[in-house]
Amino acid sequence: MAANIQVTPEQVLQFSAPTSEFLCPFTANTYNIEFYRFTIRDMETGKVMFDVERNPEDYPSIPTIAQLPEEVHRTMRTIYYNFPPSMLRRRAIGAKLVFGINSDFPVRNFRMIERHYFRDTLIKSFDFTFGFCIPHSTNTWEAIYDMPALSEDWIRAIIDNPNETVSDSFYFVENKLVMHNKAFYAYDAPEENAVI
């Protein structure tokens, strides 16, 4: 893990391929930011495409997590999505995130940069600012993602190569990287089973 490197928002906005490793240690999350629920829906139909929720009481503390093996850290920071092929043709999706700030420190200038790649080619990039979050608070954030128009050749290649579409999500507080997560995407789920 590249734990000693100071990574800036400007740097990650220049990345042209997914990172080979996580760019900050789990312990960089000194604000104890936790994600409780994440929902993705199609903006045209309102249909929920993905919904995952967990009880805040079930999440171990950052010091506890720090004692776990590195392989467990990687697993906790990685998610695998399986969407139906029609997801690639959506024009816009809504994303709703519920997260907690579980420390005594306020979170100023909380920013997420998310970069999506297929085979080391950037296909979309998102840059969101959550703003200010008070200590010991639960917060809800919702945004609309305009999806890129992909050619039929690209869509077919992405469908035929599950988990070769990868995203890096970088979370900054006052321009300091405090969290880095990864996601892998497959687009071969049955259409009738859109909620994973």
From TrEMBL:
InterPro entries according to UniProt: Ig_E-set, PDE6D_unc-119_myristoyl-bd, PDED_dom, PDED_dom_sf
Gene3D superfamilies: GMP phosphodiesterase, delta subunit (2.70.50.40)
SUPFAM superfamilies in the cross-refs: E set domains
A GO MF label: lipid binding
GO cellular component: cilium
Similarity section: Belongs to the PDE6D/unc-119 family.
Protein name: GMP phosphodiesterase delta subunit domain-containing protein
Annotated organism of origin: Trypanosoma cruzi (strain CL Brener)
